[in-house]
Fold:
Amino acid sequence: MPDVNSLSEDQLKKLIHAAKRNNRRSQESIYKMFFAKMLSVCRRYTNNDDQAKDILQDGFIKVFGKLEKYNFEGSFEGWVRRIIVNTAIDHVRKSKKDFLLANVQESVEDITETIAEEETPEEPIEMSLEIGDVREAMEQLSTAYRTVFNLYVFENFGHQEIADTLGISVGTSKSNLAKARANLKKILTRELENRNEERTKLI
Structure:
């Protein structure tokens, strides 16, 4: 199955028009074309592979249900991605009744200062992280922190948009982003320290 970027604009338009007419083969082609990328997006909102696949299936049902509304303005992949992300957010809302996030009273400035103070370790740590390490670290974040982090970093949402989307305050969004970053840093630093310690034992 060719990547969406390998199709010409005319080829992609023909594929979308056919899918709009409920052509099953065209719909299947679109599904396969975006499956891997969109599953990766879904996995960032849950640490459960089965849930990620459920979100993806629900998302593509919405994609094809709304396909008639796509007017070829802007990236088709971006349009699909937004629907998948919104589906993931809906899943988070439904599965977490206690989704109200961090304590808004905690100062974001205080959190930022704490991160800055911890920024330089006493002993240099060899950097050998891979994408998989970061993904595993993100899975250790709470649902609240992970969701805000994903929306801000990967989806380029501003804090007001995050607040509107999740039904929280801008202050809560900022606080959760700061805490997510601080927790990720601690998790990854600990992982690097453990690796260096194991490496030293082998020398």
